[in-house]
Design brief:
The complex is a heterodimer of chains A (410) and B (123). With 410 residues, chain A is mainly alpha-helical. Chain A has a domain of 107 residues. Chain A contains 21 helices and no strands. The radius of gyration of chain A is 24 Å and the shape is elongated. Chain B is of the alpha+beta class and 123 residues long. Chain B has a single domain, classed as Dimeric alpha+beta barrel (Alpha-Beta Plaits), CATH 3.30.70.1060. Helix content of chain B is 36%, strand content 33%. Chain B has a 4-stranded antiparallel sheet. Chain B is flat and about 50 Å long. Classes of the chains: A mainly alpha (410), B alpha+beta (123). Chains A and B meet through helix 20 and helix 21 of A and helix 2 and helix 3 of B.
């Protein structure tokens, strides 16, 4: 056995794991509702693959091989639990058709059900994204904890509790009925967007929480679009992410310096990504059903226009924000609206928008203070601006953003 | 619930702290202002350099005094902040915003439960 071959095998296992993880967990848990056992069974199967494939070679249908191995492991676990009576139907499901040939061709893709389970209203919204990342992509609790700034042990416990609730709380593994679909789908989209973790970059030097999970989020939304090709909001979210992704490299100077959107060089943006975003947004709009993510993508689309026109149509952005506010009056949206209004109609108008926000709500909300500081500075109110800058600096997490704001305060 | 944010510095950071043109001074001041404005600040302070520390032990009735800090590690305690917050999650948020987190490390620890603290003070 040479080393190159070994490496190839390991890479094959990694690739299969990445592509099949969620599909296999979904398929294994759709009847049992037991995500933890399905994940354990699958990780046993992956370990088994690591032991067998380097010697026996990668099987023709690696996914089916993993599924068979995981099923066997799951059957062992269920037999062990000695709850045979209750598990009778489950065992039946697991043992029937369990020859590799019948599984080899196709098994139903249950990931969509899994996504809806992860974002079920009975589960703490803060856990929707971590659950998705773990069950659909197989990310470790520790990695998820890093991204969400939660103590790793706590994240592990919360994931465990959420899975227990799914197993014993009667959360159905099904695609919601039409009546509930918009709301339920919105929760799924929010969860994916939360993994993406870039926000408010159209404001002036506001904090960005890099979750470092943009790739994972893009993978999830693409998978979702395949499963629900007719949903404009799914396509809207993909467009939004691609726009942000297209500008990602220009957010930092070569020295690591933070560069706000207004100072980025459009020539450095990724045109292929922006074109792909535009394509998806145009497709989404054809349905004639507007929504939050389509509007957010539309705002980013106006920003992207600068690559062609050299200008930003702030009035158009403010209009999109107005529509967005009617759907979701989130703090970030209101601060973004204020920034757009200030550009379109002057800093006083922008400040007037900010002044409608309750002070209690924004005591720890960094983007508000960054926008406020910028507008006060433009009005020449130096000392008030300096106070607001301090708040924005003190609430910033990214040292580069902090440095950028410190420079502006002077 | 009260939390202690314990701020650890590298020797380089301690060196910089010693001169008044400290590059992170603005960031620290802004952080303090944000803590107070958010109503979460309880107290805290910066400590003198680690080498000014003296460690005392009494073993078998004998005093042992040692120059320097308790632990001989690269990163040393530079200061602490007490915060009143609803949860560890919130404390970690504030720790991540702390200028000390991007140059050294910040350990977040809840204060012992009040009943235990009362046991120690007898009050």
């Amino acid at each position: 056995m040479n080393e190159i071959h070994q490496e190839d095998t390991h890479r094959a296992i990694e690739r299969v794991a990445r592509e099949s993880y969620g599909r296999l967990v979904a398929y294994l848990s759709v009847h049992t509702h037991d995500l933890a056992s399905a994940e354990d069974a699958l990780s046993n199967a992956l370990v088994s693959a690591l032991n067998h494939w380097p010697q026996d070679g990668v099987p023709k249908n690696p996914e089916a091989w993993l599924l068979t191995a995981a099923r066997h492991s799951l059957i062992d676990v269920i037999r062990h639990q000695r709850v045979i009576l209750e598990s009778e139907p489950t065992l039946k499901f697991l043992t029937e058709n369990s020859t590799e040939t019948t599984l080899a061709t196709q098994f139903s893709d249950e990931r969509l059900k899994l996504l809806f389970v992860c974002a079920h209203p009975a589960i703490d919204p803060a856990m929707h994204t971590p659950l998705m990342l773990q069950t659909v992509l197989g990310l470790h609790a520790a990695r998820i904890a890093q991204a969400f700034l939660i103590a790793p042990k706590t994240m592990g416990q919360r994931l465990f509790r959420a899975k227990t609730k799914i197993r014993s709380g009667g959360i159905p593994f099904e695609i919601p009925q039409e009546r509930d679909l918009p709301e339920r789908l919105d929760a799924v989209l929010e969860a994916i967007y939360a993994a993406f973790g870039i926000g408010w970059d159209d404001m002036v030097g506001t904090d960005q929480r890099g979750r470092n999970l943009a790739e994972e989020a893009l993978w999830l939304v693409r998978a979702l679009l395949q499963l629900m090709p007719g949903e404009p909001e799914v396509q809207g979210l993909l467009a939004l992410m691609l726009h942000c992704e297209g500008r990602r490299p220009t957010r930092r100077g070569p020295d690591g310096r933070y560069i706000p959107l207004s100072e980025q060089d459009p020539k450095q943006w990724s045109l292929p990504l922006i074109e792909e975003a535009e394509h998806h947004l145009a497709e989404a709009f054809k349905h004639g059903r507007s929504g939050k993510f389509q509007l957010e993508a539309a705002i980013q689309s106006v920003h992207a226009e600068r690559a062609h026109t050299g200008q930003t149509d702030w009035a158009a952005i403010a209009l999109f924000y107005e529509q967005l506010l009617r759907i979701s009056p989130a703090l970030g949206t209101r601060a973004g609206y204020a920034a757009a209004v200030a550009e379109a109609r002057g800093p006083e108008a922008g400040l007037a928008v900010l002044d409608t926000i309750d002070l209690e709500e924004i005591s720890s909300f960094q983007p508000y203070w960054a926008v406020r500081a910028h507008l006060l500075q433009r009005l020449g109110k130096t000392s008030e601006a300096s106070d607001a800058y301090d708040r924005a600096i003190g609430l910033a997490e990214d040292p580069a953003v902090r440095e950028f704001l410190l420079q502006k305060r002077r | 619930m009260q939390f202690a944010l314990m701020i650890y510095h590298t020797p380089e950071e301690f060196d910089m702290r010693e001169n008044y043109s400290h590059p992170h001074l603005g960031a620290w001041r802004a952080y303090y202002k944000a803590l107070v404005a958010a109503g979460v600040y309880v107290g805290g302070n910066a400590l003198e350099l680690p080498e000014t520390g003296t460690t005392v032990r009494v073993k078998e009735g004998k005093r042992r005094v040692q120059d320097g800090p308790y632990a001989d590690t690269k990163e040393q305690l530079a200061g602490f902040i007490f915060l009143e917050l609803p949860s560890l999650d919130a404390a970690l948020e504030w720790a991540a915003r702390c200028p000390g987190a991007s140059i050294g490390a910040v350990e977040v620890r809840p204060l012992a439960p009040e009943a235990m603290r009362r046991g120690f003070t007898g009050e």
